[in-house]
Structure formats: C-alpha cells, structure tokens
Amino acid sequence: MSKTKVVKGVGWDVSAIGNAVWSGAKLVDVLELVGIPKLTSITQFGGKHVEFVSIDKCKEENGGPYKVSIPLSLATNPEADVLLAYEMNEEPLNRDHGYPLRVIVPGIIGARSVKWLDSINIIAEESQGFFMQRDYKMFPPSVNWENINWSTRRPQMDFPVQCVICSLEDVSTIKLGKVKISGYAVSGGGRGIERVDVSVDGGKTWLEASRFQKSGIPYIADDANSDKWAWVQFEITVDIHNSTEVIAKAVDSAANVQPEKVEDIWNLRGILNTSWHRVQVRAGHSNL
C-alpha cells in the first residue's frame, strides 16, 4: 500500500499468515463450565463480549497488558472453534507462539488470537484496549491522520478473500516456456475458496488453477472433508514466452472477489491489502 501512498504499519508483505495444527480446550466448553451456555449472546448480568488479557505488556497500553475482545455470540458458538491452545503441531507451545496458553480465533484477524494468556473476562462492552479501539480498523481512502475519528469504525474481525503467488518473487527472472505458478488462497469467516484465476498477460485473459489442501486430493469449497479454517493451495502450469506480469485472484464461496486495484482499498493504517497479487517476470536463463 505504501507504494500508492505511505501508510503507518508493519510491512508484512505476503507473509503475515501461517497454518498449524492447534490443540487445546474449546472456549465454548470452558464457558459452559462456568455457567454460560452454548449459543449465548448476552449473559444474565449483561455480558456481551469476551475479553482476553495477555501477560505481555506494551507501550501502546502505557505499560499495561495487551487486551482485545470478541463477541460472546462468537465465543459460545461451537461451530466457531475458538480454542484455548496449549499445543502447536503436536508439541507444547513454545515461547514465541504464546507458551503456556494462547487463544486461537480461526477465521478472524490474528490480532484477536492473544498469546501468553493471563485472564478471560466477560464484559458488557467491547474491550477498550488500544488494539481494539485505536488500531486494526478499516477506513476509506478519504480518511487521513488529520481527520481520523477512531470511534466511527468497528474493530476488524473477519478478513476478505485473498491469494498470493509463492512460487515467484516480484521481478523474477525465469526461463521461458512451461512455468509452474503456485501459492495459497484464504478467506475469513470459514468461507471456502471457490476459484483461483491466474493471468500471464497482465489480466487480459485468465486460467483457472487447481486447488488442494492435501496433495493429490482435489479441493471442494465448503465440503465436509475440507478444512474451513486452513488455507487452500493452488497451482497451474502455464506457457510464458516473454517478460510479463503474472496475476492471481481468488473468489470465495460467498462469491466475494479480490479487488483489482490497491488504490480502491487504500487505508491509512495499511491493513487488508487484498488486491490482485501481481508479480513481474523477466525473460532470462533461470532454472525456475
């Protein structure tokens, strides 16, 4: 986004995502043990949100703990799979990933999956933590740091459909001929990936890539055998005969499509750049 207009944020590029096998206790079961039934939107005492407080202290909270919240209706929904995780990939959490206990809120931006969990609170209003009220909110391109009003936007939860080419870096030199294009696609809220389109002529024509989550097994969006919280890998072999722009774009199971231009979704914080992923390739003698 900063290539369009400078934003204030961490330059994640295409790497701010990962997949793992998480193990732990379902939050919905823990809440039921303390008297909050499944599918509860408000408690008898007016609680509507679940706040997660970390041991981690941060300057944005003036030395206080990192804290965020999710709606109680999400936390008590068995289908949402919110987890209090103590294992990652069948091993105890390491320090960097939140040992000894962290939250995993699948299908929601990572800022809500609190590491180094210290406490859980049931509260009437959204958490007033910095990262709920003064960060991770989506503003239109017309808003700048002089006219921003944080209270006019809700904290970001879900995230839009997106895909990334991983087999080529931007401004790659390739050997002309058959080239395999591969990467990942993902959409928030547990929505599946209906299609990934790839163009090798700058978006003039498109080819549909194959999709899979397990090697050799075709992926079907929203099928019972598909993992709704995991990314979907895609690949296609194409003919490239000259220097060009390779583009990928995804469509999710709700027919949401990635926006073409980053200018249309530019925002001062620089979040959710889900525009078409573009990679420039040059003819050369690479072994790719």
> What level of helicity do the residues show?
under 10%
- In CATH, the homologous superfamily of the largest domain goes by the name Oxidoreductase, molybdopterin-binding domain
Could you name the CATH class of the largest domain? Alpha Beta
Order of helices and strands: EHEEHEEEEHEEEEEEEEEE
Strand content: 25-35%
- Enumerate the spans where pLDDT stays under 50 for 5 or more consecutive residues: none
Number of domains: 2
Helix and strand composition category? mainly beta
Looking at the structure, the CATH topology of the largest domain is: Sulfite Oxidase, Chain A, domain 2
What coarse outline follows from CA principal-axis ratios?
globular
Describe the sheet with the most strands: 5 strands, antiparallel
Count helical runs: 3
Say how many strands there are.
17
Strand order of the largest sheet: 8-10-15-13-14
Distance between the termini: 28 Å
Radius of gyration: 21 Å
Named CATH architecture of the largest domain: Alpha-Beta Complex
Q: How confident overall, as mean pLDDT?
A: 95
What does this structure look like?
Pathway: Sulfur metabolism; Energy metabolism; sulfur metabolism. The chain has 288 residues and is mostly beta strands. It folds into 2 domains: 22-152, Oxidoreductase, molybdopterin-binding domain (Sulfite Oxidase, Chain A, domain 2), CATH 3.90.420.10; 162-284, Immunoglobulin-like (Sandwich). 5% of the residues lie in helices and 34% in strands. The chain is built from 3 helices and 17 strands. It has helices at 27-33, 72-75, 130-133, and strands at 22-26, 49-57, 65-71, 83-88, 91-92, 102-104, 117-123, 162-165, 172-175, 177-186, 193-199, 207-208, 210-214, 217-218, 232-240, 244-252, 277-284. The strands form 4 sheets. It has a 5-stranded antiparallel sheet with strand order 8-10-15-13-14, with no helix packed on it. Strands 9-17-16-11-12 form a 5-stranded mixed sheet, with no helix packed on it. The protein is globular and about 65 Å long.
